[in-house]
Amino acid sequence: MASKPAADIIESIGGAENIVGLTHCATRLRFTLKDASGIDQAAVEALPLVLGAVPQAGDRYQIVVGGAVDTVYNDIMALPAMKKHAGDHGTGDTIANVKAAERAKGPRGKFSGLDTFFEILSDSFRPILGALLGASLFITFMALMATLGVIPSWNAPGVTLDPSWAFINLMWQGVFVFLPLMVAYNASKRLGADPWVGFGIMAVVMLPGFNALGLTDGAETVFGGKAAVVQIFGLPLTVTDYSSQVFPPLIMAVVLGLLTKYLKKIIPSSVQLIFVPFLCMLIMIPLTAFLIGPMGVYGGAALGNFLKSINDFSPFIFAVVIPLAYPFMVPLGLHWPLNAIMLLNIQSLGYDFIQGPMGAWNFACFGATAGVLFLSIREKDRQMKQTATGALAAGLLGGISEPSLYGIHLRFKRIYPRMLVGCLVGGVILGLGGGVKTSAFVFTSLLTIPAFDNIPLYAGAITASFFTAMILVILSGYKTPEQKAEFAEALAAETVASDDAATDSDIATPVVAGASGSGTGTGTATATATATATATVLATIGSPIAGIVVPLTDVPDPVFSKGIVGLGVGIDPTEDTVYAPGAGKVLVAQATGHAFGLRLDSGVEMLIHVGIDTVNLGGKGFEVKVAAGDRVEAGTPLVTFDRKVIEDAGYSLVTPVLVTNPKKFGSVDQAASGHVEVGSPLITVTAK
């Protein structure tokens, strides 16, 4: 059975026919589209599974779905429309053909090359993130046992562990020792080469026999004794340990991808299966062993030494700059090279000094999410509560920041300054303490705290980062005034769907709103009118304010005019007091005075929104008369306003009067036009 959430995602981005390519990382679906210009980002982000959407250069589009990304990806690929588009059925264009057509169009934006580079880097690591995370927990366990004195320093040179503990220690090494092979496979596949050929090329320089070449007579030790140079057919071959290296396989895969494409152009297709792999290996194995491998090792070491020199010069500056830089690096993908440097540091130095400051950023990120969760619970924002809960769990237990970053922080820009303060506080604490190191590549979560050499310093720094960001977000809020208004309107509109108090018997009582406080006498229904109307009319709602009736489609705000919030009319007011249109309960009474949600005794739920965008006034010019939970009667004043304040601020006075639960009724119709007084019949609601 097809997955509706998966189908909804594909529909929101223009359907399967708009998709050129699809991959995914740990939390994001990565689309390459034919045309991304017409996508409604708000509609995409409104889908239940979607945490956020990130448009990119060159018609690339990312959709963040969190930890369930693999399941969602598989559901999408299983959709009949996707299978047909991929050429599994029918005679339509295949994905490969569409990609070729897109490439023929030329460059895909100013930064497309940079996007491609980081996308390749991400795709090379993404499939093995689970293995890295699992292995990092084994390392953390060993570090914890060493800290508690159960075992000796497990990673110190010359230390021999009991066979039982030695076996446990081997459980993480398989991932990190053979990491170059995994990266070579993924990168080769991503770049269009045979991934097993890439794997096999990288495997040659990791063979015990290759390392043994450095022990032969006449070998000259270099690179601080960590490598040896031996003559092979008169050419100098640098022999070194490639365990945990990531730059050599990445460079090798790039060259292999280019070579593969060239060979496929010049070799007949009938013999490509034999000669393309053979010639790739014939060329790439020597090239990797003699040139690419050493170049990757030395280049990576140079980058690592540069960062180490900064850290050695001033651990304080380094510990402050890294967490402040990460919030901007992660959205751009710039953190992937640093991950590679961390792995290289551990392999070459025996420790890494970047992950500690990175932890300050991560926990500031998670703290901001915790602040959003607290506010969403207080505000009864169910969707944000769900988003923040999942993001916080992924962060605290897995050390993964993307669900928080893309699902929340980049959507609500007020969060970033507060989060940066948390980063700064944690970084300063680490810097003043002289920094921390770890001998393992770990994801900075609660579970991996024991992996750091100075646990009290690291734990104190990340705790300070977390609570600083959380408290600042709670105190200042994370929504702009416009976002607060949108949420208030949505909350008022959805109350019937979540409240079973309104029963069918409630709705069945006819309500005819009479004039209250206006002296017009227009609200009295005659016996004849009642006899002809009771069969269908459930409620006739009186106008809450005197003014000119404005058809809903002419209300100057698309959220209202399109009926998204509810059905009804607008009133261009001629007076300055808004009254309850009937007897009922106040569900929402905004402190700013701009919006009120009511449930009338008839079961009709209403939203009265005084002016357009008037929430931005922050309550200036409004005097609220009621509070949420109050009982009101027809004609009870809700709010008075100063029209001059609203007009001087440049906002429209048109006041939408809406039925927010129209699906429960047969119809919601405009009952008046022109000028109306308070209590004059304005809207009629009929039974289904």
UniProtKB/TrEMBL annotation:
It is found in: Cell membrane. Keywords: Cell membrane, Kinase, Membrane, Phosphotransferase system, Sugar transport, Transferase, Transmembrane, Transmembrane helix, Transport. Residues 557-661 form the PTS EIIA type-1 domain. It is a multi-pass membrane protein. The active site is at residue 25. InterPro entries: Dup_hybrid_motif (IPR011055), Glu_permease_IIB (IPR036878), PTrfase_EIIB_Cys (IPR018113), PTS_EIIA_1_perm (IPR001127), PTS_EIIC (IPR003352), PTS_EIIC_1 (IPR013013), PTS_IIB_1 (IPR001996), PTS_Sugar-Specific_Components (IPR050558). The keyword Membrane applies. Residues 119-492 form the PTS EIIC type-1 domain. The chain crosses the membrane at residues 128-151, 163-184, 196-215, 246-263, 316-338, 359-377, 420-443, 455-475. PROSITE patterns: PTS_EIIA_TYPE_1, PTS_EIIA_TYPE_1_HIS, PTS_EIIB_TYPE_1, PTS_EIIB_TYPE_1_CYS, PTS_EIIC_TYPE_1. Residues 3-86 form the PTS EIIB type-1 domain. Gene3D superfamilies: Glucose Permease (Domain IIA) (2.70.70.10), Glucose permease domain IIB (3.30.1360.60). It comes from Cryobacterium sandaracinum. The keyword Transmembrane helix applies. This is PTS beta-glucoside transporter subunit EIIBCA.
